Amino acid sequence: MSTPNTEQKKSASQFVTEARKAIPEFTAAQAKEKLDQGQVGLLLDVREPAEWEKGHIPGAVLAPRGMLEWYADPTTPYAKPELTTKRDALILVACASGGRSILAAQTLQSMGYSNVVSMAGGFNEWKKREYPVEEKTTEGK
């Protein structure tokens, strides 16, 4: 019987730090400017559905981080055409604070997406700056 390897090789923050060396980032202000100018081909939100429902950037497409590889691969039954048809467009990836989005952007880059940028500070920074936010509304509430 083998003993479990309890020695951690890399921490989550180390993955993020390494990704930041390879992936460009926009501030929330830069992201808004690019969106307003129509320069973003796809705004991808990699948060979880429960986070999305509490508010998201208008025009964003939801692709939770846990399903990203399947959504981005046109050969899978889960492929999202909103994503797979934008391989060369500017893709702006956002999450809550910037960690998941930088890792997601790195994943997309390694899958052959050529122009991927992460939004530093994520949705939290976007909302803090009082930029437009869409919220899910339920009929009758």
From TrEMBL:
PROSITE patterns: RHODANESE_3. GO terms for molecular function: thiosulfate-cyanide sulfurtransferase activity. Pfam families: Rhodanese. Residues 37-135 form the Rhodanese domain. This is Rhodanese-like domain-containing protein. It comes from Ktedonospora formicarum. The lineage of its organism: Bacteria, Bacillati, Chloroflexota, Ktedonobacteria, Ktedonobacterales.
